[in-house]
Amino acid sequence: MKSTRSLPAMIATLLASPLAMATEIDPQRLSQLDQDIQRATPQLIELRHAIHQHPELGNREFDTAKRVAKRLRELGITVQTEVAHTGVVGILHGGKPGPVVAIRSELDALPVTEQTGLPYASSVTVPYSGNDFSQAGKTVGVMHACGHDAHIAIVLGVAEVLAKHKDSLPGTVKFIFQPAEEGVPVGEKGGARLMIEQGVLADPAPAAIFGLHVGPGASGSLSISRQRTTAAADTFVATVTGEQTHGAFPWAGIDPIPLAAQIVLGWQTIPSRQMDLVALPAPVISVGRIDAGVRSNIIPAQVRLEGTVRTLSQAQRDDVIERLRRTASKIAESAGASAHIEVTPTYPAGYNNSALVDALLPQLKASSALAVDIESGVYAADDFAEYSRRIPGVFFGLGVTPDGIDPAHTWPNHSPKFLMDDDALPVGVRALSRVTLAYLANNGFNLPAGVQP
Ligand SMILES: [Zn+2]
Ligand SMILES: [Zn+2]
């Protein structure tokens, strides 16, 4: 499909585009970079396997953080530890003046029991500490099923190759290793938001932030969106309250079960019948859990519906949550029952800075032998959005499906069989190093202040 933007708007964008500026990095520096990455790769693969074998859940990444801090210190990088519980921040001061830029990696793994059969597979089990009440008190397997082990190795690889030529580096690079991207234990704070509360975007304040995420895709392929990256994810619990009675005479009470069924279907008419599908892709509303009743012939007093709603902007988010409430309460009211919804916001929708994407795209194209896929975002959520709503951010994808497996049919992130091809690691290091070097060498492309949208 062609762009739906008007021609004058496109011309204005082109005239303002930093692409018109030189985005080159010194060629000698680039060939040195490639050699450095090649030399570092075997150790990075080993490091990734070690982290994979010893995964830790959110806010409990004690050993992972120690490993990261130790490596950063070995590289001569200034290190802060225990930021937002277990976060580690490395600051590399270049020998020449220039802007400050940040690169982010997550530290945490997931409560998933690994089934890859790999020689370095995780056999770690721990008492569950996440926010899913149905898992409370259970012992769970732990696995780097989202590939954050690869992110750690890649960002440490970037730190290594940039630290090597620290004296000629025009600016400062802040390496942010944050805990708990996948969520925090009940009653705790964490993740990107807590890192920011504890000052990670200040002193020195990065003017932009970069990050990548591994996922299904040809090994070593890169993908990026010019705008929307990830969705806002809100979880909700709806309680539909009727009146308990015998299953043989429902008229003696108020049956909340058919009402709950009507509400689930009613919610599906929000994206399909009530949203302007031209303005923005539709929200996703999914009910993942329904809980009610004790036995077959008792109509219960209450039904509990748990779900997630994925939206693509703050305005869409507020609008859809209002519609969720209205649909539930009016359907319940129609039978004399009531419905109450509690919404827990998790992450906001993520957006890339388009001007920065345009400026950095040549670096991504030069980082992989495969064509860069220009995509339009996903409905998954990531708290990288917390940074990129405050400072210009660029978040891109790295395909890690091993050769011989169809990326369209492989196990996705969070699967107990999620696979990560080690050959993709140096591509990730190259891409992040090149965008960082280009940003520093071009004084941040003199982008206008502020973030999108
Ligand atoms: Zn994940
Ligand atoms: Zn992830």
From TrEMBL:
<keyword id="KW-0479">Metal-binding</keyword>
<protein>
    <submittedName>
        <fullName>Amidohydrolase</fullName>
    </submittedName>
</protein>
<feature type="binding site">
    <location>
        <position position="146"/>
    </location>
    <ligand>
        <name>Mn(2+)</name>
    </ligand>
</feature>
<dbReference type="GO" id="GO:0016787">
    <property type="term" value="F:hydrolase activity"/>
</dbReference>
<dbReference type="InterPro" id="IPR002933">
    <property type="entry name" value="Peptidase_M20"/>
</dbReference>
<dbReference type="GO" id="GO:0046872">
    <property type="term" value="F:metal ion binding"/>
</dbReference>
<feature type="binding site">
    <location>
        <position position="414"/>
    </location>
    <ligand>
        <name>Mn(2+)</name>
    </ligand>
</feature>
<feature type="binding site">
    <location>
        <position position="148"/>
    </location>
    <ligand>
        <name>Mn(2+)</name>
    </ligand>
</feature>
<feature type="domain" description="Peptidase M20 dimerisation">
    <location>
        <begin position="235"/>
        <end position="332"/>
    </location>
</feature>
<keyword id="KW-0732">Signal</keyword>
<dbReference type="InterPro" id="IPR011650">
    <property type="entry name" value="Peptidase_M20_dimer"/>
</dbReference>
<keyword id="KW-0378">Hydrolase</keyword>
<dbReference type="Pfam" id="PF07687">
    <property type="entry name" value="M20_dimer"/>
</dbReference>
<dbReference type="Pfam" id="PF01546">
    <property type="entry name" value="Peptidase_M20"/>
</dbReference>
<dbReference type="InterPro" id="IPR036264">
    <property type="entry name" value="Bact_exopeptidase_dim_dom"/>
</dbReference>
<dbReference type="InterPro" id="IPR017439">
    <property type="entry name" value="Amidohydrolase"/>
</dbReference>
<feature type="binding site">
    <location>
        <position position="213"/>
    </location>
    <ligand>
        <name>Mn(2+)</name>
    </ligand>
</feature>
<feature type="binding site">
    <location>
        <position position="182"/>
    </location>
    <ligand>
        <name>Mn(2+)</name>
    </ligand>
</feature>
<keyword id="KW-0464">Manganese</keyword>
<feature type="signal peptide">
    <location>
        <begin position="1"/>
        <end position="22"/>
    </location>
</feature>
